[in-house]
C-alpha cells in the first residue's frame, strides 16, 4: 500500500511495471529508467533522453548496505537531477535549480530493496580491477587535488553545501561507493561512457591514489 | 519556457549570423551542433545564458568566463581558446577549475565551438 502511494505521482505505465515487480525484478523495476546493459551506441543525445543514471556497472560501484537503505528511502544524489540543464534556470547572481521539477525516485520495501541490491551487485563492467586502490589514510594532498588543483569541486560537493551542483554529491562517498570504482572511474570516465560529463584528467598513479583516499574517506564517520 | 527562450535566442543568433555573411547549410548545422554541445556540457559553469553564471559557480574562487562579454572574448586569441577547451584552464595560465575536455570532444567539435562562440556573442561583428 505504501509503495502504491509513493508511486501515485508516476505514470500509469511506471506504476504497472513497478507493481508487476514486487518480487524485486531488476528489468521491470529499474530498467524503464536505467540502462542495465552497456549501451551499444552511446551518444550525447542519450544523456538528454535517459531518465536515470546507468546501472550496468552497479556491482562495481555501490556498497550493498547503502543500496538497501537508499532504495527504501531514496534521497538526492545529484542536486541538479540526472541532467542539470533540464532543471537550471537563468538568474542573478547565478543560475538556480528548479528543485520542484526534480522527479522523485520510487521507494520499495525492505525485502524488495534487498533483492534489488543483490541483483544490482551482479552487474559488473569488467572495467574495475579489484584491489587497484591501495587503502591509505587521506592526506591534505588529496583534498587539495579535489579542490584547487584538479577542480573536482567545480561539479561535486565534498561537504553539504560546498562545491558544484551538476554532478553527484560525494560527501557520503564512503558509504555509497566502492573505492576501486572511484579509482577506475576517476582514471577514465570515458571508458564507462564516451560522452559522460566528467572529463578525463591526466593523473599520475599517486594523484589517483590520493584522490581516491580522500573521496573514500568522505562521510565515513556517519557509517 | 526556458527551452523556448533558448531556442529563440539561438534562432536570433543564427539570424545574426545570416545577417553578417551568407551561411551555408553546413555552417548552420555546425552552429546548431555546437549550441547543443554547449548546452550539454558548458552551461553547468558558464550559464544557460552563456554569461558565466552557471549553477556550479557559488563557491568558485575564480568565476567562469562570461561568454556574453563581447570585448572580453575578443581579447582572447583563437589558439588560446582552443587550448583552454582542449587542455583546461591551467594550460593557458587560467583557473584549473576549467577542466580539459579533449577526452569528451573531438578536435573538430572544439574547432567548431570557437566560431560558435564568436557568432553567439558577436565578438567578430564589429
Structure description:
The complex is a heterodimer of chains A (223) and B (126). With 223 residues, chain A is mainly alpha-helical. Chain A is 39% helix and 4% strand. Chain A has helices at 2-6, 12-19, 26-30, 44-49, 58-61, 64-72, 110-120, 140-149, 173-176, 179-187, 189-192, 205-217; strands spanning 88-89, 96-97, 157-159, 162-163. In chain A, β3 (157-159) and β4 form a beta hairpin. The longest helix of chain A has 13 residues, at 205-217. Chain B has helices spanning 2-20, 25-46, 70-74, 78-87, 107-121. In chain B, α2 (25-46) crosses α5 and α4 (78-87) crosses α5. Chain B has 126 residues and is an all-alpha fold. Chain B is built from five helices and no strands. Classes of the chains: A mainly alpha (223), B mainly alpha (126).
Mean pLDDT of chain B: 79
Instruction: Report the mean per-residue pLDDT of chain A as an integer.
Output: 90
The helical percent of chain B reads 55-70%
Main structural class of chain A? mainly alpha
The SS-based structural class of chain B is: mainly alpha
Secondary-structure map:
The complex is a heterodimer of chains A (223) and B (126).
Chain A: H1 2-6, H2 12-19, H3 26-30, H4 44-49, H5 58-61, H6 64-72, E1 88-89, E2 96-97, H7 110-120, H8 140-149, E3 157-159, E4 162-163, H9 173-176, H10 179-187, H11 189-192, H12 205-217
Antiparallel strand pairs in A: 1-2, 3-4
Helix pairs in contact in A: 6-7, 8-12, 10-12
Chain B: H1 2-20, H2 25-46, H3 70-74, H4 78-87, H5 107-121
Helix pairs in contact in B: 2-5, 4-5
Describe the structure using short key phrases.
heterodimer, A: 223 residues, Cytochrome Bc1 Complex, Chain D, domain 2, 2 domains, two-stranded antiparallel ribbon, 4 strands, B: 126 residues, mainly alpha, 56% helix, globular
